[in-house]
Structure formats: structure tokens, C-alpha cells
Design goal:
With 77 residues, the protein is of the alpha+beta class. The chain has a single domain (2-75), classed as Gcn5-related N-acetyltransferase (GNAT) (Aminopeptidase, 3-Layer(aba) Sandwich). The protein is 21% helix and 30% strand. It has helices at 7-14, 23-30; strands at 37-44, 47-55, 66-71. Strands 1-2-3 form a three-stranded antiparallel beta sheet, with helices on one face. β1 (37-44) and β2 form a beta hairpin. The longest helix has 8 residues, at 7-14. The two termini are 17 Å apart.
């Protein structure tokens, strides 16, 4: 999916310019978040077109979590 995202979309998701999303990072994004959380993907046929994740940080107390989402450029709006 990230191969179909523009550099600005990648930057807005990861807050860092990347020519490509590293494979090790992709592996972390599809597994269950450490410490709790969920991953949700949006698909069209066999293609993933969106990714969302929320994860609890060990330092966050209570019911708070961090979340992030990205949608392939063609599917935005």
C-alpha cells in the first residue's frame, strides 16, 4: 500500500521524509501493537488501501492511546 502513497502522504503519516517505508517498519505496523491496541486495514478486493493503528504506550496511564491512520492517495476524499 505504501508504494502507492505520495511522498507528502508518507510524510504526514510518519512525520519524516522517506523515499520508501522500510520493510522492518511495515512488519511492525501489521502485527499487534506491543502493550495493547489494534490494527485496522481497509481493502478493495485483494489490495490494502488504508491502515489505521492505535497503541498504548507503557508510559501512558489509564485509557489513553496514540492513534494514526493513512489512506492511499487515490482513495482519499
Amino acid at each position: 500500500m505504501f508504494d502507492h502513497c505520495s511522498p507528502p502522504t508518507i510524510y504526514l503519516r510518519f512525520y519524516s521524509p522517506m523515499p520508501a517505508v522500510p520493510e522492518r517498519l511495515t512488519e511492525l505496523l501489521v502485527g499487534p501493537p506491543k502493550g495493547g491496541g489494534r490494527v485496522l486495514v481497509a481493502t478493495s478486493g485483494d489490495e490494502v488501501v488504508g491502515h489505521s493503528i492505535y497503541a498504548k504506550d507503557k508510559q501512558i496511564i489509564g485509557r489513553e492511546a496514540e492513534g494514526a491512520a493513512v489512506v492511499e492517495d487515490e482513495w482519499q476524499s
